[in-house]
Amino acid sequence: MHEIRIPKLGMDTTEAEVKTWLVNVGDRVDVGAPLLEVETEKAEVVIEAEVAGMVREIRAPAGQVVPIGDIVGLIDDQA
After folding, report:
1. Which CATH number fits the domain that encloses residue 12?
2. Into how many domains does the chain fold?
3. 12-68 confidence digits (pLDDT tens)
4. pLDDT value for 32
5. CB 47, CB 23: distance < 8 Å
6. How far is CA 42 from CA 13, 16, 63, 68, in A?
7. Using an 8 Å Cβ cutoff, are 1 and 76 in contact?
8. Which segments constitute the Lipoyl-binding domain (predicted)?
9. Does pTM surpass 0.85?
């Protein structure tokens, strides 16, 4: 199982808001596929899949503010 995390997005950035998920639980994704959009004070960023597999869990719904490094979902890279 691969964890989808909010990456470090700037020197001073400590949190990001999940704007929208571009995938649903059960969707298959390839490496580099856009998963979700997040927004910080300075930028909007698309988080891409680091592994291919099936989206198994979405932990942070749209509108939720999460700390940088937080796990927001899971991809089953064995599926």
Report:
1. 2.40.50.100
2. 1
3. 889 999 999 999 999 999 999 999 999 998 889 999 999 999 999 999 999 999 999
4. 97
5. no
6. 9, 10, 17, 14
7. yes
8. 1-76
9. yes
